[in-house]
Amino acid sequence: MNAQDEFPLSRRSLIAGLALGASLPILAACGASPAQAKNFPVSLTEAQWRGKLSKGEFYVLRQAGTERPYSSPLNDEKRSGTFVCAGCGNALYSSKTKFESGTGWPSFYAAIDRGAVGTSTDYKLGYPRTEVHCADCGGHLGHIFNDGPRPTGKRHCINGIAMDFSPA
C-alpha cells in the first residue's frame, strides 16, 4: 500500500479545505454588526438615518466605515468640552481624556462614563478587534486598542465624523 492509497486527499484539496476553514470567521463577520442587530434606546429605520445623517456620517455610524486619517477637524480639537454622538447626541467622551496618539483619529483613554459606549468583537480584518459603538443608538464609533496611556492603557480610536463637539 502506498501513501496515495492511505491518504486519498490531494495536496490541492487539503490546501483548499484549510483556506476555507480559515476564511469562515471573515465570512461570518460580513453580516450585520452585533451592535446594529441589538435594540437601542434610539432606533430609526435605515431611511430615517439616511435623512438625518450626512453621507459620510451614515457610512461610518451605520455601515461601520472608517474615515481617512487626519480628515476630521476633531482630531485637532483642544478646547474643553464634550464629544457627543453625531447620530443621537449621546455624550461619549470628555476632552479631559483626549490625547494625541499620532494616528490621525481623535483618541481617548476612557469614555465619559461606563454606560456611554458599548463594545463588540469585530473580525472584518480577519482577526479580533474591539469595536466601540454608541450605547444609545448603536452607531459605530471606532475601535479600542491596548496601547493607550495611563490610567487605563486603552486607546479609543474614534472616527471624528461619528462625533460632534460641544464646548464647555
UniProtKB/TrEMBL annotation:
<feature type="signal peptide">
    <location>
        <begin position="1"/>
        <end position="28"/>
    </location>
</feature>
<dbReference type="InterPro" id="IPR002579">
    <property type="entry name" value="Met_Sox_Rdtase_MsrB_dom"/>
</dbReference>
<dbReference type="GO" id="GO:0005737">
    <property type="term" value="C:cytoplasm"/>
</dbReference>
<dbReference type="Pfam" id="PF01641">
    <property type="entry name" value="SelR"/>
</dbReference>
<dbReference type="GO" id="GO:0033743">
    <property type="term" value="F:peptide-methionine (R)-S-oxide reductase activity"/>
</dbReference>
<feature type="domain" description="MsrB">
    <location>
        <begin position="46"/>
        <end position="168"/>
    </location>
</feature>
<dbReference type="GO" id="GO:0006979">
    <property type="term" value="P:response to oxidative stress"/>
</dbReference>
<dbReference type="GO" id="GO:0030091">
    <property type="term" value="P:protein repair"/>
</dbReference>
<dbReference type="InterPro" id="IPR006311">
    <property type="entry name" value="TAT_signal"/>
</dbReference>
<protein>
    <recommendedName>
        <fullName>peptide-methionine (R)-S-oxide reductase</fullName>
        <ecNumber>1.8.4.12</ecNumber>
    </recommendedName>
</protein>
<dbReference type="InterPro" id="IPR028427">
    <property type="entry name" value="Met_Sox_Rdtase_MsrB"/>
</dbReference>
<dbReference type="InterPro" id="IPR011057">
    <property type="entry name" value="Mss4-like_sf"/>
</dbReference>
<keyword id="KW-0732">Signal</keyword>
<keyword id="KW-0560">Oxidoreductase</keyword>
